[in-house]
Model the fold of this input.
Amino acid sequence: MSITGQCHCGKVHFQIEGDLPDQLTRCTCSFCSKRGVLLAYFHPDQFHSTVADGSDSIYRWNTEMVAHHFCSTCGCATFSDSPAFELDGSWDKVTRRIGVNARLFDDFDAATAPVTVIDGKNLW
Done:
């Protein structure tokens, strides 16, 4: 299966080779809670994006290990490229993952999807 999506203005498109995860993730860290995204995680090889006119901007904070991408035209949070942290904060120093904003998926109602809450406010 292939999942497609785009930001509000359409300058950032993406395609994911794979199925929707069983659960979306809502993180309570200071950054994620302000953005309000619901994340669907995928292996980097599954994710492909197309950006028009250099509209892909990146925000990094704290350790700068996570690249939070957003459209510089419409401001939509599109995806994050991060280490594949475990719930205890550990990481094998190699594996990465892409957290895609599921609210941008085409023909998908994020309000009906099961959501797991990660206590990022206290974990990171």
Notes: Residues 26 and 32 are 8 Å apart (CA to CA). The first strand starts at residue 2 and ends at 6.
